[in-house]
Amino acid sequence: MRYFDIYLIKEEVARLYLGKEDLLYRLFMEAKAEKNQQRLDILQKQIQYITAAIPIAELKTKLHKLPVVDSVDDKIELNQEDSGIVKLKLNLTFIEIKVSGDNQAETVVFEALRRCFPHFFAVDYQNHYGAWLSPQKRHILHHRQLVL
Questions:
Q1: Residue 3 · residue 125 · CB < 8 Å
Q2: What is the C-alpha separation between 131 and 6, in angstroms, rounded?
């Protein structure tokens, strides 16, 4: 089973941290591992500052276009045919994802999330990795072209 936490990063922060994904990952990793309550409070405030609230109702509507097996409150289970099962728990600050099966199962969900918002950042604590769900460079370059 693979586990991911997905955070919606504010656009201005996403622009600043383009190419610095390791710094974002370290922040989330430190907060997950921190035992000292005072330090944890500081890390959580930093995370709160750089993340946006996840619009759960809008996200649930878009995710229901996928093959939903079960949906109770903010928990959704998706069956990706032969590729596996994906379980999502939607929180206001992040999305917990548990995947059993091959990589195709999570790819379908990541693609759906990617279409919703361009600044989702995935944290894979098992493999010590953090990455954007959408290619930020392309999005930001497109945004700059619109401004110019």
A1: yes
A2: 10
- pTM, two decimal places: 0.84
By three-state DSSP, how is residue 119 classified?
coil
The per-residue b/e assignment along 27-51, b for 16 or more CB within 10 angstroms, e otherwise, is bbbebeeeeeeeeeeebeeebeebb
Number of H helices, E strands in the chain: 6, 7
Write down all domains in the chain, each with its CATH number in brackets: 2-147 (3.30.310.250)
Please report, as a single letter, which amino acid is at residue 61: T
pLDDT tens for each residue of 68-118 = 667 788 888 888 677 788 899 999 999 999 998 888 878 888 888 888 888
Q: How far apart are CA 26 and CA 130, in angstroms?
A: 9
Q: How far apart are CA 115 and CA 96, in angstroms?
A: 18
Query: Burial level of 96, CB count in 10 A (0-12/13-18/19+)?
Result: middle
Rounded CA-CA distance 117/54 in Å is 10
Give yes or no for a contact between 6 and 94, defined as CB atoms under 8 angstroms apart.
yes
Helices (H), 17-119: 21-33, 37-50, 56-63, 103-116
